[in-house]
Amino acid sequence: MEFSSKLLEKAVNEMAQLPGIGKRTALRLVLHLLKQPKERTSFLSQALTTMREEVQYCSSCHNISDTALCAICANPKREHQLVCVVEDIRDVMAIENTGQFRGIYHVLGGKISPIDGVGPSQLNISSLVEKVKLGGVEEIIFALSSTMEGDTTNFYIYKQIADSGILTSTIARGISVGDELEYADEVTLGRSIVQRVPFEKSLRG
Ligand SMILES: [Zn+2]
């Protein structure tokens, strides 16, 4: 791609670093910004910079938050003894949208995937095991997507907490294997949380 302006080229190249954005799309977005009032670009770049600088991760559940403790963990009305284990914030948002879950979350930040070089130590697993050991947790609900990586991660965590005597369950799936949680419709996802099954049972199935 030949550019008549180095400034334009630089902006397009930066934009094209984003996933799913090729150079053509990047050029279209940048040209769009050029047509808009200058403030639009300021608002956009400021929102991104501030978000990157100031965003925090909840010290309890690792959810993305504006405060040290996220709004869900800080809410006394939530059932803190009920912990739903998810991969990332998109899953928290999807489950919150169902309005069917009153517990709290634990965000792993990914799934165990040896192919991608992701081992248990790179995920927020030890803090979950610690939380269980400290007491106060009555049930862990696994809500990872039912892929091989999701199953491996569930089983790894399950082994770590199996002797604690707490309940472990997995969300009942009305969704086919490999479907990512965030794409499941609200009704199906809500039902799958309410109708969760004991984790041991899911192993035999
Ligand atoms: Zn939290």
UniProtKB/TrEMBL annotation:
Gene: recR
Molecular function GO terms recorded: DNA binding; zinc ion binding
Domain Toprim: 81-176
Family: Belongs to the RecR family.
Function: May play a role in DNA repair. It seems to be involved in an RecBC-independent recombinational process of DNA repair. It may act with RecF and RecO.
Zinc finger (C4-type) in chain: 58-73
Chain segments annotated as transmembrane: none
Protein name: Recombination protein RecR
Keyword Zinc listed: yes
Keywords assigned by UniProt, alphabetized: DNA damage, DNA recombination, DNA repair, Metal-binding, Zinc, Zinc-finger
